[in-house]
Amino acid sequence: MRPPSAETRKSPHLAADVARREVWAWAMYDFANSGYTTVVITAIFNAYFVSVIAANQPWGTFAWTATLAVSYLLIMATAPIIGAYADLHAAKKKLLAVTTLGCILFTAALAQTGPGDLGAAVVLIILSNFFYGSGENLIAAFLPELARGRALGKVSGWGWSLGYLGGLVTLGVCLVYVEWAQSRGDSAVAFVPVTLYITAALFGLASLPTFLWLRERAPPQAAAPASLARQAFARLVTTLRRAAYYRDLRRFLVCLVFYQAGIQAVIALAAIYAHQAMHFTTRETIWLIFVVNITAAVGAFFFGHLQDRLGHVPTVALTLILWIIMVLLAWAARGPLLFWAAANLAGVAMGASQSAGRALVGLLAPPAQRAEFFGLWGLAVKLSAVIGPVTYGAASWITGGDHRLAMLITGSYFVIGLILLAGVNVRRGRRAALRTADRNSRDEAGQYFHKDKTAR
Question: What is the enclosing helix (H) or strand (E) of 170?
């Protein structure tokens, strides 16, 4: 039996020359890289860093958050330049290969750290998270090339759904190994390094379809080899100077900083809140992470389809309302039942809001500058990853360890985001992006005509 041809695999949701296999290969990158954040940042290595590497010192948690903050600030500083460079030289896939390899190698190198290796662990976390975040921006920039405008939300939702499943798979494999290791009497010093090898290996294996079948469609733009970096930076400066022209995109990016600050606080501190405020055991917290990831995958997939029917801004607004309800439920919860309801509502809202936000940036970005503007999207997300957790930590410290009040204060970011979102006009923003594309096309045509006349 012959396999179906590329034409039979086409979908009305995809661009004319895009087959379903290529979209699956693109989404598999979300599946591949999610294991890093789940195991290293959220579930296993963070606790190992504080308890073993930092020897449970009072400054251990601060050292961990400060390390992450440095890596996010590096991503913020370089993402727009990397995006501009990728657009100028059609280098998204090449740069993605570099960032993927970097994250895999530095994650594996973390396995060599142990008690007393604070300096090495800090440097390796900064590097591995930097390469992870840079790759996240680059893979997002492929989205508008793959999906039709009205299907950006749906296709983005496919990627986010696979991402949450990928995190579950990697965490599940690691937990099976940890259970086996503990049954033999192994300590964390023995089994945590192996989980890092597992994470690195699964990242590399699951990302192979991306590099086999995802195509680089953007043509390179004119650039002198002697001034590549300077041209990329100059283009970024030009984009920032014209930010007023893309006022809807600019407003949404500011909106995204605020509501993502709330999301990042929930991601980074949900386990701490469950333990400190709800007195969950470690086993109960692990089950909570598993279930919430499943709910998040369902939410990303469902809202990805709903977004293309309901509209981008209404979908984001709906998810922010869900976040506000979640914060109120978590604040009011005194028993596990209401907190489990809040956690699963957070899962639905998490997958939906992040998928919808990525799709909306793709819709509002000028076609020739998508990687550059997705670099700005990544910058906004990383800025929120610094602001949100720091706000929660400061509020908890100032209130003498009142995690409920800290959650309520951090939840105000969702309210601010909802207010800012009300001023985003998708049609106006899309017209501005398309006018830029038309103007660039006319400029290129004029330059070609001028050169042709000169030659004759």
Answer: helix 152-183
* Same domain, residue pair 103 and 170: yes
What are 397-446's pLDDT values in tens digits? 777 778 788 889 989 999 999 999 999 988 888 888 888 655 555 544 44
Domain end among 214, 231, 263: 214
What is the pTM assigned to this prediction? 0.73
* 422/312: higher pLDDT: 422
Give the integer Cα–Cα distance in Å for 115 and 1.
Answer: 57
Q: Within a domain: residue 226? A: no
Distance (Å, whole) CA 421 – CA 166: 30
Compute the distance between CA of residue 431 and CA of residue 422 in angstroms, rounded to an integer. 18
> Nearest CA to 378 among 41, 39, 164, 84?
84
- In contact, 174 and 199? CB cutoff 8 Å: yes
Measuring CA to CA, which residue among 237, 212, 263, 272 is closest to residue 50?
272
Q: Which of 115, 143, 112, 141 is nearest to 128 (CA)?
A: 112
> How far is residue 241 from each of residues 87, 237, 244, 245, measured CA to CA in Å?
18, 6, 8, 9
Q: What CATH number does residue 164 fall under?
A: 1.20.1250.20
- AA letter at 228: L
Residue 260 one-letter amino acid: Q
Q: Are residues 48 and 141 in the same domain?
A: yes
Radius of gyration over alpha carbons of the chain, in Å? 22
- 365 in a domain, yes or no? yes
Does any domain span residue 2? no
263 vs 392: CA distance, rounded Å: 11
Q: Which of 413, 411, 393 is nearest to 403 (CA)?
A: 393
Report the C-alpha gap between 400 and 155 in whole angstroms.
45
- Residue showing tokens 């959220």: 42
> Is residue 26 within a helix (H) or strand (E), and if so which, with residue range?
helix 20-36
Same domain? For 180 and 123 the reply is yes
Please write the tens of the pLDDT for every residue from 12-24. 667 667 788 888 9
Q: Residue 240 burial by CB count (10 A; 0-12/13-18/19+): exposed, middle or buried?
A: exposed
Does any domain span residue 225?
Answer: no
Show Cβ contacts of residue 47 under 8 Å, excluding neighbours closer than 6 positions. Answer: none
What's the number of domains the chain is made of? 2
* Host domain of residue 146: 25-214
